[in-house]
Amino acid sequence: MGFDAGTQSVKVAVYDGNFQPVATRSLPTTLRYPHPGWVEMDADNYVAVTLECMKGVVDDLRAAGRDPANIASVMGDGIICGIVGIDREGRAVTPYINYLDSRTTDDVEALNARGLEIWGRETGNPEASPMFPAMFARWFLRKHEGFREKGVKFVHNAPYILMHLAGLAAEDAFIDWGAMSGWGLGYDVKEKRWSPEQLEILGIDPAYMPRILKPWDRVGGLSEAVARETGLPAGIPILAGAGDTMQSMLGSGIFEANQGVDVAGTCAMFCVSTDGIVPELSKPGMGLVFNSGTLPDTYFYWGFVRTGGLALRWFKDHVCREEGNGDYYRELSEGAAKVPAGSRGVLFLPYLTGGNGDEKDASGCFLNMTMDDDQFVMWRAVLEAIGYDYIGLADNYRKAGVDLTRITVTEGGSRDDLWNQIKSDMLEANIVRFKNPGGAVLTNCIFGAWATGGLGGEAEDPAPLREALAAAITPSGAFEPDAARSRAYRELYEMRRSLVAVDMKAAFAKLVRMRDVH
């Protein structure tokens, strides 16, 4: 059994010994926006939704004549940039804050103004970012009364769920060595340990940090209470889990350096695998994040559009008023396919929770619309918006020597053929899609089989794991760039870059001030 605890939903699935899906359930999560730039979630809601999905999967297994007692392990993945504070019993005493939140922007700017080089040397991330859990931890310690009174540990959302499945308290809190690098600051990425010097600079007591485990380490067994609630037998091995991006990359067949992946989820992430820190990509101002992978000695950089996939859901739900109608994505793309590349000059800026770096004041908006434009033009502009940000990232990767002639696309957005073709044209690269676009859950199940001896081979030898992953991956689509559209997108990109970075800078600052006028 595997689960993926994402931003917009939790998915739970069981695969058989041939890694074919047997039962799957998914439920939405809830996001709150208490202040402009703030995004909060409820860690206990994650647990409740996961348990409900697990119970549904058990019901489906029994209906299919399968015995839930045959489940060999449970492994989950979750968001790498997000934390919650817990008390001694392991209960949440803070909201869960993730990468969509911008409340730490002022603190980030003050920390970056110090120009400390230890960040880049030990983490590969030369600058702090408002999305880093290290900055959320500083905020909790300074401004959250509940954490200052009762908080004893910080954990990510997947470990929080896994701790509750195993009935663990704060003294057993953990994080795997890949998700650890989601903290952005505070650790040594090569040594896989918390950095005393960095934590001292950050003002975070090491006692608040969870222990670091391998993703496939066993943390306990399914508790009696959870067994009663879900219908599963108690004692099923619970594994330490992993980060969602790390698992999505492995599920896309990325086992070697210099390969590209577009993780088309809530946060649109454009990743490249590397052998380690690449100095050209770890320079201040690059806007990239460096992480370690799930397997030993694997690393990757990623750039992002924080509200990439979320912008698509926002447009469907709140502009088109089609909340709950997942099929409407297909209708929108069918109409947008008839709109020429460039959306007749209409632009969408996808910064619905704010921008980054020099463009931190940027906000979401449509530009250049006329009476001739409809929701299909707007939809194509939304799809193209993520591609424009990706062009800048691709330029930086290529300058550093990373070959991007082929890019694998994964997660929910990969199902949209129009979006894949737009990205192929904009990035001047071949786009490949596999049949398992939500590959993180399958990857978790393959890890679960490996960790419990189901794949054979020597203990800790990842060869059988890689073989099983490669066998489970089957291409289901390929998209090639059109030279004429690529030229048009490059011209439009140069104009858009100047428009956002130069022409609209003062306008964005004024728009931010207008929010406070009542």
From TrEMBL:
Species, as recorded: Sutterella megalosphaeroides
What's the domain of life for this entry?
Bacteria
Q: Which key words tag this protein in UniProt?
A: Kinase, Transferase
Q: Where is the Carbohydrate kinase FGGY C-terminal domain?
A: 263-451
The Gene Ontology biological process terms listed for this entry are: carbohydrate metabolic process
Which family does the similarity line name? Belongs to the FGGY kinase family.
User: Residues in domain Carbohydrate kinase FGGY N-terminal?
Assistant: 2-251
Protein name per Swiss-Prot or TrEMBL:
Xylulokinase
Query: What lineage does UniProt assign to this protein's organism?
Result: Bacteria, Pseudomonadati, Pseudomonadota, Betaproteobacteria, Burkholderiales
